[in-house]
Amino acid sequence: MSSNTGYSDKNAKSVKIRPSGDKDTDKYIQSSWQRCRDQYKMSPDSNVELVSLSESEVRQRREPMEKLLSDSEEVFDKIRTVSKQSGYAVLITNTEGVVVKSYADSSISHDLEQKGLRQGTLWSEKIVGTNGLGTCLTECRPVTVFAEEHYGFNLHNFSCSAAPLISPDGTPFGALDISTYASGNRLYQALALNLVCETADEIEAIVFKNAYANQRVISLSFSPHRPETNALIAVNDSDTIIAATTPLLLALGCRDRYELVGRKFQEAFSDNPGQLESSVVLEMLIQLKGKPHKLYATLLHNSAVERRMKAADSAASKPSASGVQTHSAEAQASDTPLFSAAGKEPLLLKQASRCQRIVNKGISILLQGETGTGKEVWARALHESSDRADKPFITLNCAAIPESLIESELFGYGAGTFTGGLKSGKVGKIQASHGGTLFLDEIGDMPIELQASLLRVLAENEIIPLGEVNPVKVSLNVICATHRDLKELVSRGDFREDLFYRISGFQVALPSLRERQDKPVIIENVLRALCRDEENAENVQVAPEALNVLCQYQWPGNIRQLKNVLQYAMCMREGDLIQSDDLPDEVFAEPAAMSSEAGARSYAPPSRMVSMAGLTEAGVEQPPLSEKEELEQVLEQNRWVVTRAARALGISRSTLHRKIKKYNLFIDEAAGESDSPA
Ligand SMILES: Nc1ncnc2c1ncn2[C@@H]1O[C@H](COP(=O)(O)OP(=O)(O)OP(=O)(O)O)[C@@H](O)[C@H]1O
């Protein structure tokens, strides 16, 4: 390990933590200080520099959280009122620790704003050291960082309490913080922490109800007088629990959300013969730590589900005059190919309804996503949702055939054009998709010379097959897909800018499987499809522990890999239950180190004093790094910004430049000289 850390072991021993009197608190503050010292190579008792992002960088990071922020407005109003009265600033960050929204409603909080507690600042623990937001995101738990517990000397007069914001699959999507000037006793901050935790719970419940608006959401409570709580589960049509909120998992003492998720409702809350109906509080008996407890379940009012159920009932009981069974608009919508490709992923559901509206409007659609994320499935769903559904759907994977053949594959050729070609000539894919849809997969691999011809086809709707002179009129819908960053290809001159704009009238980003909030639903869908292909397999299920393993795995090959894994497990299983032992070794790999501050994504209840340190990047035991590896790691963490990496390493910029040269590390000079985060 490098000794150029700017402080000696003697300094390290002098790490001082103001005793809080709370052992648990001391532990997480100590771990954070240790990370600052050993991993981020920060020197204690020196000032930390706050990094501010530009308006557009903040906007870009806020965009995915926009809906959540507007849905939770009422909850934010409540915490703002309390914060205003007590002189706190309210900050909301994404998982990187970038403040995407802040509220300063009092003169104290205006003052705090001037000191950096405002929208746009970056509170990543790696950059700023121990602090409320950064440490909360790293530890994935609520924290208060009070006065001298902050690593940076210039933050010693702040008191910050933060809690992670948790999405329905248990992964953090940001953090909420209230901060003020530190005064009095640290223990008084317990109230602030409580307020942040309660608010984070309320936000989690709102996001949860929205994510499962088409399922049954049940509130569970220990009191019959307060049946509606933030302790929620979502149950699908076959009575399987598909998600649970953090407050519920903590109340029931579950260390892992898959102690509930994946189980049948009746079985999880055993000996409960009652039926859940609207506005009835169902009393149930459960065992907690060996003792019986009464638990009250209430089915929350859900108009979408009620409409769907009513539609299903009436469809089942009365055929329409035409003899065709009727469905409500809701049921019809969720039956469409686009909605079934979207699963229950909130972002994709939104994209499905947008695509549904534009699919016949002549707007070109570009699909982006890693390999195996379902781009072709989405393209087919678009075709099947369009007016061209009964016409051909033709695909051409530009990366899968040699460059020299793409042109003839696309445009076809006339009789006798090539030696070795078909005597009668060949109809190209463009002509073959006339009337229907042409799906150009991996468009980023289209040779630049051919891009001009493709652009012409799209603009003029006609082609001239190779070796022919007469143009042929075509009418087709072109959908393109890529896993590459086309804008970057454009900037490198490898992709025509005019073609990029021509094919990307509307862009759909398909999330990787590891990012999806609806993993249990996707697993179930892929499994059902496989079961349909096998005799007597209709009752095959995945056991909760196996489901847990599948949901925690990082899935570099996305849904395609999931399909292979389930195919393997189907062969290995004995009986109708797929157990962990039936899964291939690959899915038991350690969670990969995460790029975001939040560390490895966790499916266990992540907060309220349950430390996820064992799963975070920080907690995974690392072998010692060589100086070169360490430099690469710190440069990577600081996005190759030399000034920032030098600061993180505790060395000067010129020393870092010398080391970069010594180890022949690649550095992008433009990025290296700038301090603005990429
Ligand atoms: N929503 C889904 N539900 C069930 N299975 C799916 C879903 N999406 C994709 N799959 C399955 O995953 C596999 C990969 O899907 P697809 O070929 O559409 O991915 P892709 O992104 O086009 O991959 P590539 O980039 O490698 O071409 C296919 O077997 C497909 O059937």
Automatic annotation (TrEMBL):
Residues 1-27, 310-334 are annotated as: Disordered. Residues 341-571 form the Sigma-54 factor interaction domain. Residues 323-334 have a biased composition (Polar residues). The keyword Nucleotide-binding applies. InterPro entries: AAA+_ATPase (IPR003593), AAA_lid_NorR (IPR058031), GAF-like_dom_sf (IPR029016), Homeodomain-like_sf (IPR009057), HTH_Fis (IPR002197), P-loop_NTPase (IPR027417), Sigma_54_int (IPR002078), Sigma_54_int_dom_ATP-bd_2 (IPR025943). This is Sigma-54-dependent Fis family transcriptional regulator. The keyword ATP-binding applies. Residues 312-322 have a biased composition (Low complexity). Gene3D superfamilies: 1.10.8.60, 3.30.450.40, Homeodomain-like, P-loop containing nucleotide triphosphate hydrolases. Keywords: ATP-binding, DNA-binding, Nucleotide-binding, Transcription, Transcription regulation.
